[in-house]
Design a protein that fits this description.
The protein is of the alpha/beta class and about 600 residues long. Strands 13-14-17-20-23-24-29-30 form an 8-stranded mixed sheet.
Length: about 600
């Protein structure tokens, strides 16, 4: 495998080529076999479906996507969550209903984007597949990047379905004469070399016993698949590979002359199923009365594959977010259905896998990660106006499609997206500002998360801004009001915060399921008539908590994040982004004509 600097250069070159190829297809009608026939994005509910459809429609209007392609948003059925595996099965049914027998003769990409992004809530309202990235003109979002990175796949693919997630990035380099082919029956998955710690949070492939050549691209078969295994399990299963004489980083992080053997495993990312497997899965889904549990497309499909697969995993629920009573039974049925199906592996030795699904990952990759910056060409200032200051300084902050007054002070390691910041606004380090209009002389403390939403209440557009600590856990919840003290807002007990805000603990304080009480469902965010007013109010709440001073909220209409998403006005949020886009475009034309 190449040295670190050589790998970065290879990935940069390969990525540039794919982006250029995708750029040539944007706004053009594609030829048969040149691109996907069908692009499917999944949504969790009707509201999310509508938001995705509106954004797709805007992108097609602005010619940001290839044309002549069928773009669909399929919403999960109402009722209990069914996971990305259940969602995959449901999509197969939707495709058959829409295309009849034709669906088995086309190339389809299925992007799972149906979550509420509680770990990266600036993407909750408009969807993680529409996460803005700091490059491109107009700005690339995750959807365009995914389509660009997989641009070479459809040409060398038998009719089938490529299944991927909305919040990861795979970069890879292969030889100039090599192509990645998805032409074998069964399942085919990409595999990336990763250290063992990464393997504990991913799927790990135990490859067949033939020796690895460490060529850029290899086709192998998988003996069996491990889902989020511990390190001991990786060793016991024979998943661990050894790389001889690799250079070790010294204390300053640079590679030294010290050579040692390194252990690594091959981890998963996307996978492909041919149409025979798709038909089998669809038949299985139709035979179920209803699906009432979460199925994982990775854990529950892939663990059944390969000659070494056993049904032990069907009873294990360590890695299951919410065990349904139906789950063990469904897993056993899937195991019986898929056992004996091959799992083909495309080993990409020159590749990197990046996950951008949490606030910490988002901040790190967009501001501090020099590897991804170089490989993908990420910018500190992407399609934005921030005169003087940013032009002459190498800030590690990241500004995406935003307009900032020249007197603003943005600390390193913060991300500003789709926002407008007035004179003398300062943003502390390690913060995320999204969709905000921040008026003059405002200080945003370090480690802040501020995201504004347009909402429609009684037919009128209003605004609410969620303000949190970037490390606050929106997934944590308690069952009893008496346990609310264990929830934390900006590192402080929520109970203390409620006292400062003059809010009483009662059933009325939380929206939705009364046995699931957390920051996600706490009605603490004021509704305001202006966008800037909503940010001002939410920052006052935060200042009260940080200074331990009272700030009464009891006279305001308050919403939880859950309710803000329910009442969101997608059209108004997109209008705000469009206004910023037009203003930046106008400014750029002026600059060009002044030259």
């Amino acid at each position: 495998m190449p040295a670190e600097a050589e790998l970065e250069a290879l990935l940069q070159e390969a990525t540039r080529r794919r982006l250029a190829k995708f750029d040539r297809l944007r706004g053009k009608v594609t030829q048969s076999g040149e691109f996907w026939d069908v692009v499917v994005i999944t949504a969790a509910d009707k509201k999310q479906e509508l938001a995705y459809q509106q954004q797709l429609s805007e992108k097609l209007k602005r010619k940001e996507l290839p044309l002549g392609v069928h773009y669909h948003v399929f919403v999960d059925p109402p009722g209990p969550k069914i996971g990305n595996g259940g969602s995959t099965l449901h999509v197969l049914q939707c495709l058959e209903e829409m295309y009849g027998d034709k669906w088995t003769s086309v190339n389809i990409i299925l992007i799972h984007s149906g979550g509420y992004s509680q770990r990266l809530p600036n993407t909750s309202a408009l969807g993680k597949i529409f996460t803005a990235l700091p490059f491109g003109d107009p700005i690339y979002q995750m959807l365009e990047l995914k389509l660009a990175m997989y641009i070479d796949f459809p040409t060398h693919m038998n009719p089938g379905i490529l299944i991927t997630c909305a919040d990861d990035i795979e970069l890879y380099s292969i030889g100039a004469t090599e192509v990645i082919k998805f032409d074998k029956p069964g399942f085919t998955a990409l595999a990336h070399p990763s250290d063992l710690t990464i393997g504990t949070t991913h799927g790990v492939f135990v490859l067949d016993s033939s020796a690895l050549s460490e060529k850029e691209l290899e086709y192998r078969t998988c003996h069996h698949f491990l889902h989020k295994p511990n390190i001991e399990k990786m060793h016991q299963s024979g998943a661990v590979c050894i790389r001889r004489n690799c250079s070790q980083p010294n204390s300053s992080g640079e590679h030294s002359d010290l050579k040692m053997d390194c252990e690594y495993v091959y981890t998963d990312s996307l996978f492909y199923i041919d149409h025979n497997v798709a038909k089998q899965l669809l038949t299985f889904f139709k035979q179920l009365d209803t699906l009432c549990c979460e199925i994982d497309a990775y854990g529950d499909f892939l663990q059944a594959l390969g000659p070494g697969a056993t049904h032990d995993y069907t009873k294990i629920t360590d890695n299951v977010t919410k065990e349904g009573s139906q789950l063990a039974e469904i897993r056993q049925k899937l195991f019986s259905l898929l056992k004996g199906t091959s799992l083909n592996i495309i080993v990409l030795n020159n590749s990197r896998f990046y996950h951008i699904g949490t606030t910490q990952e988002y901040l790190f990759h967009f501001t501090s990660d020099s590897k991804l910056k170089l490989e993908l060409g990420l910018l500190s200032k992407a399609f934005s106006i921030f005169p003087d200051k940013a032009e002459n300084s190498d800030i590690s902050a990241c500004i995406i499609q935003s307009i900032l007054d020249s007197s603003c002070d943005i600390a390193p390691a913060s991300v500003i997206e789709y926002s407008r910041l007035g004179p003398d606004v300062s943003v502390g380090t390690n913060s995320i500002i999204s969709g905000c209009c921040i008026s003059a002389n405002t200080d945003v403390p370090p480690n802040s998360f501020v995201s504004s939403l347009s909402i429609r209440v009684n037919g009128k557009v209003m605004y609410a801004s969620m303000v949190l600590g970037v490390e606050d856990n929106l997934k944590k919840n308690v069952k009893l009001l008496s346990d609310v003290h264990s929830l934390q807002f900006f590192g402080i007990s929520l109970l203390q915060c409620l006292e400062l805000w003059d809010l009483r603990i009662s059933d009325q304080l939380f929206s939705g399921d009364q046995t699931s009480l957390g920051l996600w469902t706490a009605r603490i965010f004021p509704v305001c008539s202006t966008l800037s007013g909503s940010v001002r109010m939410s920052l006052k709440m935060l200042n009260a908590v940080q200074n331990k001073s009272a700030f009464k909220l009891n006279g305001w209409k308050l919403l939880s994040i859950e309710e803000m998403l329910f009442y969101k006005d997608v059209e108004d949020m997109l209008k705000f982004r469009q206004q910023i886009y037009e203003e930046i475009t106008l400014e750029r034309h002026k600059e060009k004509s002044d030259l």
